[in-house]
Write a structure and sequence with these properties.
The chain has 256 residues and is an all-beta fold. Helices cover 2% and strands 53% of the residues. The protein has one helix and 24 strands. Strands 6, 7, 10, 13, 14 and 15 form a six-stranded antiparallel β-sheet that branches. The longest helix has 4 residues. The radius of gyration is 25 Å and the shape is elongated.
């Protein structure tokens, strides 16, 4: 993902498509630290701190545990296992990668940290402080701004006909929807057990999706039907573009 340094929002076409997307849930922080010690020989691992900030100025170290998966090569023998990363008494995580040999340890996806962001909203900054094993000096990385969004949109969903009303086949069921969010995605509306919903947008932008919907009942059978609606925002949640989703709202009607 390409993260805008001003907004903290991501826009990318690969590995998935997002447009000005914030982050929520777990945010995986990955990276490779150059010139790390050959700990398969020396037994000494590089140490680093993960520094977090809510204003980009004052940083404090993260201390939560998180799990990484590693592949360890000892000669031609490969073992795969998980490691729970914990801070030591000084607040450092151990860098588990060893790409020098003769024995190797590779961290899947080069995970340095898992930032569990819920229920936070708004901007956060993150950087990696690496300890020089020779001098013990701290070498900070650049900081990266992330815009967090762990809140689902607000959705209003109505039907013009009386809910649970009896309607004759051939009638057109109509209603409205309005959803707002700082990082609005879209509104989905379905009807079951059969039929199709069409939507017409009156407002469609990055913070609001609003309009009308309808179900044409011609050709449908006499039965009870449920129209359901939910809204999602544009957030990358748990490292995938799932979005934060509202609870499903339902309205029923019967065809006679």
């Amino acid at each position: 993902e390409k993260i805008n340094s001003v907004t903290g929002l991501a826009t990318a076409a690969s590995p998935f498509t997002v447009n000005q997307a914030p982050f929520g849930g777990e945010v995986q922080i990955s990276g490779y630290i150059l010139n790390h010690p050959n700990y398969s020989v020396s037994g000494v691992k590089l140490r680093y701190k993960v520094m977090l900030s809510s204003d980009g100025v004052s940083f404090s170290p993260a201390a939560n545990d998180f799990t990484i998966s590693v592949d360890r090569w000892v000669g031609a023998v490969v073992s795969q296992f998980d490691i729970v990363q914990k801070v030591d008494a000084d607040g450092f995580y151990s860098y588990q990668e060893d790409a020098i040999g003769p024995d190797y340890t590779f961290v899947d996806e080069d995970v340095l940290f898992r930032f569990y962001t819920a229920p936070l909203n708004g901007p956060r900054w993150i950087r990696i402080d690496v300890e020089d094993p020779a001098t013990l000096a701290i070498i900070p990385s650049n900081s990266v701004k992330l815009m967090l969004d762990n809140t689902a949109p607000n959705l209003t969903f109505t039907m013009d006909q009386t809910p649970c009303s009896d309607i004759t086949i051939g009638a057109v069921i109509t209603g409205t929807f309005n959803a707002t969010d700082l990082h609005m995605g879209d509104v989905a509306i379905t009807v079951s057990p059969a039929g199709a919903v069409t939507k017409a947008y009156l407002v469609s932008n990055l913070t609001q999706q609003s309009g009308t919907w309808q179900v044409t009942t011609t050709g449908l059978s006499k039965c009870g039907y449920v129209v359901q609606a939910w809204a999602i925002d544009r957030a990358i949640v748990n490292n995938y573009p799932y979005g934060n989703q509202t609870p499903i709202q339902s309205i029923g009607f019967c065809l006679r």
